[in-house]
Protein backbone atom coordinates (compact mmCIF):
# COMPACT_ATOMS: atom_id res chain seq x y z
CA UNK A 1 0.00 0.00 0.00
CA UNK A 2 1.35 3.41 -1.00
CA UNK A 3 2.25 5.67 1.95
CA UNK A 4 2.49 9.19 0.45
CA UNK A 5 2.39 11.32 3.59
CA UNK A 6 5.18 13.25 5.28
CA UNK A 7 6.07 12.49 8.86
CA UNK A 8 4.67 15.11 11.25
CA UNK A 9 7.61 16.73 13.00
CA UNK A 10 7.35 18.50 16.38
CA UNK A 11 8.63 21.74 14.83
CA UNK A 12 5.40 21.92 12.79
CA UNK A 13 3.33 22.70 15.89
CA UNK A 14 4.70 26.22 16.36
CA UNK A 15 4.58 26.85 12.60
CA UNK A 16 0.91 25.87 12.47
CA UNK A 17 0.13 28.20 15.37
CA UNK A 18 1.89 31.07 13.55
CA UNK A 19 -0.18 30.29 10.45
CA UNK A 20 -3.32 30.25 12.63
CA UNK A 21 -4.01 26.62 11.69
CA UNK A 22 -4.83 25.69 15.25
CA UNK A 23 -7.50 23.04 14.68
CA UNK A 24 -6.04 19.61 14.08
CA UNK A 25 -7.91 16.44 13.25
CA UNK A 26 -6.24 13.12 14.02
CA UNK A 27 -7.27 9.80 12.55
CA UNK A 28 -5.89 6.37 11.81
CA UNK A 29 -3.49 6.41 8.89
CA UNK A 30 -4.29 3.14 7.14
CA UNK A 31 -1.52 3.91 4.65
CA UNK A 32 1.13 4.07 7.37
CA UNK A 33 2.02 0.39 7.36
CA UNK A 34 5.28 0.84 5.48
CA UNK A 35 7.89 -1.90 5.46
CA UNK A 36 10.24 -1.31 8.35
CA UNK A 37 7.64 0.42 10.53
CA UNK A 38 7.01 -1.10 13.94
CA UNK A 39 3.79 -3.10 13.60
CA UNK A 40 3.02 -2.43 17.27
CA UNK A 41 2.82 1.33 16.73
CA UNK A 42 -0.39 3.11 15.82
CA UNK A 43 -0.20 5.12 12.59
CA UNK A 44 -1.90 8.50 12.92
CA UNK A 45 -2.64 11.12 10.25
CA UNK A 46 -2.97 14.78 11.24
CA UNK A 47 -4.86 17.39 9.20
CA UNK A 48 -4.61 21.10 10.06
CA UNK A 49 -7.36 23.68 9.64
CA UNK A 50 -7.64 27.42 10.13
CA UNK A 51 -11.44 27.32 10.35
CA UNK A 52 -13.14 25.31 13.10
CA UNK A 53 -16.15 24.43 10.90
CA UNK A 54 -13.88 22.70 8.38
CA UNK A 55 -12.22 20.66 11.12
CA UNK A 56 -15.66 19.72 12.49
CA UNK A 57 -16.78 18.58 9.02
CA UNK A 58 -13.70 16.36 8.83
CA UNK A 59 -14.19 14.91 12.32
CA UNK A 60 -17.86 14.17 11.55
CA UNK A 61 -16.84 12.34 8.36
CA UNK A 62 -14.54 10.00 10.30
CA UNK A 63 -16.40 9.63 13.59
CA UNK A 64 -16.28 5.83 13.37
CA UNK A 65 -12.47 5.95 13.61
CA UNK A 66 -11.36 5.15 17.18
CA UNK A 67 -8.33 7.43 16.72
CA UNK A 68 -10.37 10.40 15.51
CA UNK A 69 -9.99 13.50 17.64
CA UNK A 70 -10.09 17.26 17.35
CA UNK A 71 -7.12 19.04 18.89
CA UNK A 72 -7.08 22.77 19.56
CA UNK A 73 -3.47 23.95 19.54
CA UNK A 74 -4.44 26.97 21.64
CA UNK A 75 -5.37 24.55 24.44
CA UNK A 76 -2.11 23.68 26.25
CA UNK A 77 -3.42 20.31 27.48
CA UNK A 78 -4.37 19.17 23.98
CA UNK A 79 -1.16 20.55 22.44
CA UNK A 80 0.84 18.66 25.09
CA UNK A 81 -1.06 15.45 24.30
CA UNK A 82 -0.08 15.73 20.64
CA UNK A 83 3.49 16.56 21.63
CA UNK A 84 3.54 13.38 23.75
CA UNK A 85 2.30 11.39 20.74
CA UNK A 86 5.13 12.84 18.63
CA UNK A 87 7.83 12.03 21.17
CA UNK A 88 6.42 8.79 22.57
CA UNK A 89 6.84 5.19 21.57
CA UNK A 90 3.20 4.33 20.84
CA UNK A 91 2.54 6.31 17.63
CA UNK A 92 3.95 7.14 14.22
CA UNK A 93 2.41 10.49 13.29
CA UNK A 94 2.04 11.63 9.69
CA UNK A 95 0.87 14.94 8.28
CA UNK A 96 -1.65 14.96 5.46
CA UNK A 97 0.86 16.81 3.30
CA UNK A 98 1.99 14.71 0.36
CA UNK A 99 5.62 14.00 -0.41
CA UNK A 100 6.88 15.94 -3.42
CA UNK A 101 4.96 15.26 -6.63
CA UNK A 102 7.96 14.04 -8.64
CA UNK A 103 8.79 11.44 -5.99
CA UNK A 104 5.14 10.42 -5.73
CA UNK A 105 4.84 10.15 -9.53
CA UNK A 106 7.91 7.89 -9.62
CA UNK A 107 6.51 5.63 -6.91
CA UNK A 108 3.11 5.43 -8.59
CA UNK A 109 4.59 4.88 -12.04
CA UNK A 110 6.97 2.16 -10.92
CA UNK A 111 4.47 0.29 -8.76
CA UNK A 112 0.97 1.02 -10.05
CA UNK A 113 1.38 1.70 -13.77
CA UNK A 114 -0.24 -1.57 -14.87
CA UNK A 115 -3.05 -1.23 -12.32
CA UNK A 116 -3.81 2.29 -13.57
CA UNK A 117 -3.99 1.01 -17.15
CA UNK A 118 -6.36 -1.78 -16.09
CA UNK A 119 -8.49 0.64 -14.09
CA UNK A 120 -8.80 3.00 -17.06
CA UNK A 121 -9.66 0.13 -19.40
CA UNK A 122 -12.38 -1.17 -17.04
CA UNK A 123 -13.84 2.16 -15.92
CA UNK A 124 -13.59 4.55 -18.87
CA UNK A 125 -14.04 4.75 -22.58
CA UNK A 126 -10.54 6.15 -23.05
CA UNK A 127 -8.47 4.53 -25.79
CA UNK A 128 -4.95 5.67 -25.15
CA UNK A 129 -2.36 5.30 -27.89
CA UNK A 130 1.10 3.98 -27.14
CA UNK A 131 2.60 7.43 -27.74
CA UNK A 132 0.07 9.20 -25.49
CA UNK A 133 0.43 9.79 -21.78
CA UNK A 134 -1.75 10.10 -18.72
CA UNK A 135 -0.92 12.85 -16.26
CA UNK A 136 -1.82 12.68 -12.60
CA UNK A 137 -2.59 14.93 -9.69
CA UNK A 138 -3.16 13.94 -6.09
CA UNK A 139 -5.18 15.33 -3.25
CA UNK A 140 -6.32 14.35 0.20
CA UNK A 141 -9.92 14.71 1.40
CA UNK A 142 -10.73 13.82 5.01
CA UNK A 143 -7.52 11.81 5.16
CA UNK A 144 -8.32 9.79 2.04
CA UNK A 145 -5.84 9.84 -0.86
CA UNK A 146 -7.29 10.53 -4.30
CA UNK A 147 -5.60 10.41 -7.69
CA UNK A 148 -6.92 12.33 -10.68
CA UNK A 149 -6.06 10.74 -14.01
CA UNK A 150 -5.98 13.25 -16.87
CA UNK A 151 -6.13 12.31 -20.53
CA UNK A 152 -6.55 15.10 -23.10
CA UNK A 153 -9.39 17.19 -21.63
CA UNK A 154 -10.94 14.35 -19.63
CA UNK A 155 -10.44 13.53 -15.96
CA UNK A 156 -11.15 10.62 -13.65
CA UNK A 157 -10.90 11.28 -9.91
CA UNK A 158 -10.53 8.02 -8.00
CA UNK A 159 -9.79 6.93 -4.46
CA UNK A 160 -6.29 5.55 -4.67
CA UNK A 161 -7.38 2.38 -2.92
CA UNK A 162 -9.48 1.59 -6.01
CA UNK A 163 -6.28 1.56 -8.09
CA UNK A 164 -4.58 -0.63 -5.51
CA UNK A 165 -7.43 -3.17 -5.62
CA UNK A 166 -7.15 -3.72 -9.39
Largest sheet: 5 strands, mixed
Provide the residue-averaged pLDDT: 92
What number of structural domains do the residues give?
2
Strand order of the largest sheet: 1-5-3-2-4
Strand content: 25-35%
How is this structure best described in words?
- By secondary structure, this protein is α+β, with helices and mostly antiparallel strands.
- It has two domains: 5-98, no CATH class; 101-165.
- The protein is 36% helix and 30% strand.
- It has five helices and eight strands.
- The strands form two sheets. It has a five-stranded mixed β-sheet with strand order 1-5-3-2-4, sandwiched between helices.
- Strand 6 and strand 7 form a beta hairpin.
- The relative contact order is 0.17.
Q: What is the compact description of this entry?
A:
This protein has 166 residues and is an alpha+beta fold. Helices cover 36% and strands 30% of the residues. The chain is built from five helices and eight strands; from the N terminus they run E-H-E-E-H-E-H-E-H-E-E-E-H.
Task: Summarize this structure as a short list of keywords or feature phrases.
5 helices, alpha+beta, three-stranded antiparallel beta sheet, 166 residues, elongated, 2 domains, five-stranded mixed beta sheet
Task: Compile the SSE list and pairings.
Layout: E1 5-7, H1 11-18, E2 23-28, E3 42-49, H2 52-61, E4 69-72, H3 76-87, E5 91-98, H4 101-123, E6 135-141, E7 144-151, E8 154-159, H5 160-165
Parallel strand pairs: 3-5
Antiparallel strand pairs: 1-5, 2-3, 2-4, 6-7, 7-8
Amino acid sequence: MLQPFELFLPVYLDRLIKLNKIYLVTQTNNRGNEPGNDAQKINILVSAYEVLNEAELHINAIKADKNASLIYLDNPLLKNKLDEMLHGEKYIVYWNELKNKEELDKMVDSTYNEQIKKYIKRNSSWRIGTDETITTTYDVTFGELYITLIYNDQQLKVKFEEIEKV
